[in-house]
Write a structure and sequence with these properties.
Layout: E1 8-13, H1 16-29, E2 38-42, H2 53-63, E3 69-73, H3 77-88, E4 96-99, H4 103-115, H5 120-129
Parallel strand pairs: 1-2, 1-3, 3-4
């Protein structure tokens, strides 16, 4: 059985627990979204708070199904680390993209859109649109 071409999603946080929890929540709210590869890249290799280029690269490689990889970050050095990896040019799969979106709401929108078969542009647009979600 061949793997379906679907956008992969990487959630980059300073905390391994936060990244894993957001991934679990996003997949759960998307009805499980079993076909969508989502990877958490949180914290450092030693389990501390921070970001790791190696963990991000490995996560991106693990979710690459040939339709692109959307990387959503929490803040600060997570953003800078992903930008640096993209600038290197060979550290992330082809068609990897940093998505400027709120971390939690954007992750949910990205997973739902990828599960519906959206391409990388559609996944990015849905995640970015989450900025407009008002609570009051």
């Amino acid at each position: 059985m061949s793997a379906q071409r679907v956008v992969g999603i990487v959630l980059v946080s300073h905390s391994a627990e936060v990244a894993a929890s957001v991934a679990e929540l996003a997949k759960g709210l998307a009805g499980g979204a079993a076909a969508v590869p989502v990877a958490a890249a949180g914290g450092t290799e030693g389990g501390g708070l921070g970001t790791s280029a190696e963990l991000i690269s490995a996560a991106a490689a693990s979710v690459d199904r040939g339709a692109g990889v959307a990387l959503l970050t929490d803040l600060g050095s997570a953003v800078l680390t992903v930008k640096a990896l993209l600038a290197e040019g060979d550290e992330l799969p082809d068609a990897s993209r940093l998505v400027d979106a709120p971390f939690l709401e954007g992750a949910v929108a990205a997973v739902v859109t990828a599960a519906a078969g959206g391409d990388l542009d559609a996944v990015e647009a849905a995640a970015v649109e989450a900025y407009g979600y008002r609570k009051v």
